[in-house]
TrEMBL record:
The lineage of its organism: Eukaryota, Viridiplantae, Streptophyta, Embryophyta, Tracheophyta. This is Uncharacterized protein. GO terms for cellular component: cytoplasm. Keywords: Cytoplasm, Protein transport, Repeat, Transport. InterPro entries: ARM-like, ARM-type_fold, Importin_beta. Its main location: cytoplasm. It comes from the Eukaryota. The keyword Transport applies.
C-alpha cells in the first residue's frame, strides 16, 4: 500500500521536496526487500522514474512553466534529481543483470543530464549513477561503453574534485564490467587517471578512487597494463587515505599480484612491507581487508625468508608486531 502512495507522489505531488523524499523512501525499500516485493509495482515505478527524468512530473511543471519547452532547461532541483538518480542503482542492486531492459528505457533520458550545456553537478550525478549501475548490473553495461567513455574521460579532467572522483570510480567499474569493449580505451583511461596520482591533485578521495580504478583494470586485464610503468605510480599513493570503500579492490589487486609472484610487483617488496604494515594497524580498514593483506605478507615471507628481517627491523614496533601476527609459525 505504501508503495502505491510513494509512486503516486512521484508524478502527482507538486512539492519537489516531498517528491525527493518519496524517491529516497522507495530506494530504501528496494534496498531492504528483495526484488520479489518490488515486482508488482515495477512497471508503474519505471514509468514514474521516466516521467521525472524527462522533467514532466507535476512538481517539475510548476518550475518550468507550461509554455517553456527548452529541452536544455537547466532549471531543475538538484536534490530532486539526485534522489531520482539514486533509484537506478537501487534497481540494479536488486535485479542484477535483469535490470538491463529497464536500463535501456531510462538511459537516454538520464544522458540528457550529461550534456556539456548542463551544470557540472548534473554531469557528475549521471557519472556516479552509471558507475553504480555498472557495478551491480554487470556485463550488460558493455553495450554502452562507446557512449559513456568519452563523457567519463572528459570528467576525469573536471575542475571539480567530486566530478573527478566519480569519474575515476566510473572508469574502474566500466573497465571491470565492460568486457573486451573497454580494452581499446585502456590507454586513454590510464592517461586520464595519471594526473590524479600526482602532487597537483589536492584531494585524497580522488586519488583513492584513481587507485581503485587502476586496481580494477589490472584485475580484469593484467596483460593490457604496462605494470612496469603503472605499479610505481600506483604503489606510491598507498595506503589509501580517505575513501576506504576502495580498499577491497585495491588490496585485492596488490595481493593477487603478490600471490601470483608477479615479477613486476616483487621488485617493490620494501614498499609493500611498509604499505601492508600501515593497513594492518589502520582502524579504518576491515578485518577482511587486513586478512587479505596479511595473506600477501605471509606469502612474501615464504618466498624471501630471512631476507625480510632487515625490512621488518626498520619498522616502528607497532607495525612490525602487526605483521608478525601473520608470520607462519616457525
Amino acid at each position: 500500500m505504501v508503495m502505491n502512495i510513494y509512486i503516486k507522489t512521484m508524478t502527482e505531488d507538486d512539492d519537489r521536496e516531498v517528491v525527493a523524499n518519496a524517491c529516497m523512501s522507495i530506494a530504501d525499500i528496494i534496498k531492504d526487500y528483495s526484488y520479489m516485493a518490488l515486482e508488482p509495482y515495477m512497471s508503474w515505478l519505471v514509468d514514474a522514474t521516466l516521467t521525472l527524468l524527462r522533467e514532466e512530473s507535476a512538481c517539475q511543471q510548476l518550475e518550468n512553466g507550461s509554455d517553456i519547452d527548452d529541452e536544455d532547461d537547466t532549471e531543475h532541483d538538484e536534490i530532486l534529481m539526485d534522489a531520482v538518480s539514486d533509484l537506478l542503482p537501487a534497481f540494479a542492486k536488486s535485479m542484477g543483470y535483469h535490470f538491463a531492459p529497464i536500463f535501456a528505457k531510462l538511459f537516454e533520458p538520464l544522458m540528457k543530464f550529461a550534456k556539456a550545456s548542463r551544470p557540472p553537478q548534473d554531469r557528475t550525478m549521471v557519472v556516479a549513477c552509471l558507475a553504480e549501475v555498472a557495478q551491480d548490473m554487470g556485463a550488460p553495461i558493455a553495450s554502452y561503453i562507446d557512449r559513456l567513455m568519452p563523457l567519463v574521460l572528459k570528467e576525469l579532467a573536471s575542475p571539480s574534485a567530486t566530478n573527478r572522483r566519480n569519474a575515476a570510480f566510473c572508469a574502474g567499474e566500466l573497465a571491470k564490467n565492460g568486457g573486451e569493449t573497454t580494452l581499446k580505451y585502456y590507454n586513454d583511461i590510464l592517461r586520464g587517471l595519471y594526473p590524479l596520482f600526482g602532487e597537483s591533485e589536492p584531494d585524497d578521495a580522488v586519488r583513492d578512487n584513481a587507485a581503485g580504478a587502476v586496481a580494477r583494470m589490472i584485475m580484469v586485464h593484467p596483460q593490457s597494463i604496462p605494470l612496469n610503468q603503472v605499479l610505481p605510480v600506483f604503489l606510491r599513493v598507498l595506503p589509501l587515505k580517505e575513501d576506504h570503500e576502495e580498499s577491497m579492490a585495491v588490496y585485492n589487486c596488490v595481493s593477487m599480484l603478490v600471490l601470483s609472484s608477479n615479477p613486476q610487483i616483487l621488485s617493490h617488496v620494501p614498499e609493500l612491507v611498509n604499505i601492508f604494515a600501515q593497513v594492518l594497524v589502520s582502524p579504518a580498514e576491515t578485518p577482511e581487508v587486513k586478512a587479505q593483506v596479511g595473506g600477501a605478507f605471509s606469502h612474501l615471507l615464504s618466498v624471501y625468508g630471512q631476507e625480510m628481517q632487515p625490512l621488518l627491523s626498520n619498522l616502528p614496533p607497532a607495525h612490525a608486531n602487526a605483521l608478525a601476527a601473520f608470520a607462519p609459525n616457525s
